[in-house]
Amino acid sequence: MKEELKALGEEAKKLIEKSSNIDEINNIRVEYLGKKGKLKNILRTLGKLSPEERKELGQLANRIKEELEDLLKEKTQFLKKKALEEELQKNRIDITLPSHWIETGSSHPVISTLIDISETFVAMGFSIAEGPEIEKEEYNFDMLNIPKDHPARDMQDTFFLNNGEILRTHTSPVQIRTMLKQKPPIAIIAPGRVYRKDADPTHSPMFHQIEGLLVDKDVTFRDLKGILKIFLESVFGKEIKIRFRPSYFPFTEPSAEVDIGCTVCGGSGCRVCKGTGWLEILGCGMVDPEVFKAVGIDPEEYTGFAFGLGIERIAMLRYRITDIRLLFTGDMRFNHQFKGIR
Ligand code: PHE
Q: Which of 19, 83, 108, 242 has the fewest CB atoms within 10 Å, counting from its CB?
């Protein structure tokens, strides 16, 4: 019986060795070590033997059982590992393959310029105000001291809507809206889209402006000059030449236009500055007392300045873009040239 046990052990060992999958292993376990397995069958006959023999064979059977259990466990682990490796090999991800190319976006030059300008004024204590693009004539014109017969209202400039409202022609109505709801001191800038019936290489029917308004006691033209100098130097660099030219706006008195030394030729005269060496960059002035009266601010107590500028114009000078229409084509080849400028 001893030999029989040993032979059984050897037989099982060989089968375990040969087995190549988990199912086979499980079958071997049942066949040899299971309740009705071969080992149990032999042990059942032990009762017929003497106590010494029984003891000896019992121990031998246990050793064989343990040995086989160890082998089965080992083989199971080996097969599981192998299966996992095969699986990994099959589904291998080649990380050296180039991935899909995802084009990164870029900030539009008008938006970059708008943000830069806004940040300069916010740093000086101005807050940002907004107003609607569809505006009442009253706010866009009347309350800004632009009379009914003023040429700016002309059908050629203004987009009139059927409901009697208009597309705002400038950001100045935001001044009115702000002063109607806020008492001085006021320091705001109002960036946004404006609309005029105008289209050529330097004019677009939709463009962006930034309006500035400061109202307080004892605000003078000197404050206006100082603030604009800081702003223009921050956008165009400390070396920029600035000049104020007397001008006219219905809502400011006195009014001025501000020129900077031509950024293309440096002042010697070129096509961009039309040979003058100067570029017109913004309009400004001291808030007209008529405007204060229209919004209920006492012009004897308060003074203020306002200014307005076109963002596209600044962006064009800054990035040397010669046709405003390029800014609105949506052509990605154009837009991508400005990658990383902000
Ligand atoms: N609103 C004027 C324009 O669009 C610009 C401006 C604003 C001038 C504020 C003076 C003061 O031309």
A: 83
